[in-house]
Amino acid sequence: VNVFGRPFRSIWVEPDARVPRIIDQTLLPHSFEARTLTSLEDAAEAIRSMRVRGAPLIGATAAYGLALGLANDPSEAGLRDAARHLIETRPTAVNLRWAIDRMVDGVLACAEGDRADRAWVEAAQICDEDVATNERIGEVGLEVLRELAASKPNEPLQILTHCNAGWLATVDWGTALAPIYKAQAAGLPVHVWVDETRPRNQGASLTAFELREQGIPHTVIVDNAGGHLMQRGDVDVVLVGSDRTTAHGDVCNKIGTYLKALAARDHEIPFYVALPVSTIDWTLGAGVGVVPIEERAASEVRVVRGRGPSGDLVEVELFDAVTPVANPAFDVTPSRLVTGLVTECGVYPAEPLALQGLKERVEKTTGRDR
Amino acid sequence: VNVFGRPFRSIWVEPDARVPRIIDQTLLPHSFEARTLTSLEDAAEAIRSMRVRGAPLIGATAAYGLALGLANDPSEAGLRDAARHLIETRPTAVNLRWAIDRMVDGVLACAEGDRADRAWVEAAQICDEDVATNERIGEVGLEVLRELAASKPNEPLQILTHCNAGWLATVDWGTALAPIYKAQAAGLPVHVWVDETRPRNQGASLTAFELREQGIPHTVIVDNAGGHLMQRGDVDVVLVGSDRTTAHGDVCNKIGTYLKALAARDHEIPFYVALPVSTIDWTLGAGVGVVPIEERAASEVRVVRGRGPSGDLVEVELFDAVTPVANPAFDVTPSRLVTGLVTECGVYPAEPLALQGLKERVEKTTGRDR
Questions:
Q1: pTM of the complete model
Q2: Between chains, do B259 and A254 touch, taking CB under 8 Å as contact?
Q3: The complex's ipTM?
């Protein structure tokens, strides 16, 4: 997807250098800066501090982190240590574990001397597959949007999204935003309501940035406003991403998603979740109270970064540090509130039986591919 | 209610000076500064820029604004101009119009030479009545909390509130927070989840400040978190204020209230609204799409004020001004989601028939008093 008119991925490797580069997303939308990851710890730090975030991009970054770690220690013990270290950076996203498991399996099949090479190939493959998967999610989701738009010709389809599930959350295209990019390419007029997404403001900082760079009409709102917009009739569909979806179709995503799903249901507005199949945690049935919810630092709520009067980035405290704060990062939207799961394999209802069918289909395909 | 261990009202008149003073709430929680209102325009500006906010305090400030205006022009035309000017400052709160109408009626009954005196007396009476009304709301609400707490002895009752409906939103005591202050006095243990309340952060800035000064346990959360806390079983009751409630029991309050009401209903958690009867707009039946919803400036969402690295208050931009923003300030919670209305006359169900009964009761009392 384009930035300043040029195509970009959110993570890439400089030719012949074996150093992955990322965009430091904590500086967006104020400044667009690339950052080089030179070690396993660099990668872990980038994930922990959310320079990279979004389930698919976390997975891709961890894969490269493992490759960087292998340069120092290609032993099985070293590999398993590195894997554990990376998995501990963020507890909720399931792609992180998925990407690490895939890397470990692939790498352990090789002799120690070949492991680093194999890791670089595997990480690159994870990235390329992510791009292809998301583009496919975009095509599948476009059909959903097209159908919804059919009932209001000559007017833009009004889409509400939460957090950032765009190309910055993946390697490219995004999940929830991929159908929107495909809609633009197909000439289907859309307008996107962008939830600010406190406490880290990924909506206002990242989604609005992405949409502006792509020239897609959008409006930033506070997280409190979505229900009122639905009451006004100004939302046709809600489209969000997912950090982990259970085998029963419960969707764990950025905190606040559940509230928007409730409002959508109250107005019979379709609520779709776009996700790669790798985001489904087949080991979990019900999600509420079961998916581990990351509790992040109070400072994320208390301290806000923005451009100060002198033009520099400044951090300001909204209130002082003695005020107690709770900061859960995710919530679970029960499957009963989800209209459909938009995956690279098609649209699935958020129901155990349908998802079981998806699982079997994916296992068969993977089996055939390998 | 206390600040720094001393009792304060949110608006008061210096003895013999006929100058009302307010606390500049836009500087809280960073700095506690009184400000003198010397003219009608000072009062209008204080309301418009939200140095004072909260439906009852807006009404009280407007009453003093009218008194200040009469010093310059005690004619009926001047009075009506002043009234119109004040009413235009905030379109949603119904107490504003209620207080102005009461002032105009009272003042017009006097000869021109007596009008200013009468206005000062009437404004003071509005303030004193507000304090008494809110204290009564506190007593009525305490019984509601006591009943809820009975099912969990030895554990604090977990209350979630949105925005600020405390003493800073009224002349003293508050509406939603009055029962909490009464609970503290009665030795009933409570803990309050304080919604940050974007975009102006009245929860984190004002409610948390009030609760801290009174020594009531509380935790600030982002507006997105309430649903998750309910999923975790950490909320026993939601208690909010109201800017305007219709005769059918639909509750207009700070944007985002509706989303919390939906989540409460999804968990069968009681959702109470505390309000003086003067907040009820008897002219409106259904509220959704009917109560005028103030659209405020984009800069409220884009610009955040906090304490910068040097200790000064600094405004920072979260994103640049070309990004489109929508900023509706209120939403309407349909009566079907409201467990009860806590008023100075008792707890009423949010239903047309019950509220008709309340109206008749109030009219009878007012008739007898006058």
A1: 0.95
A2: no
A3: 0.94
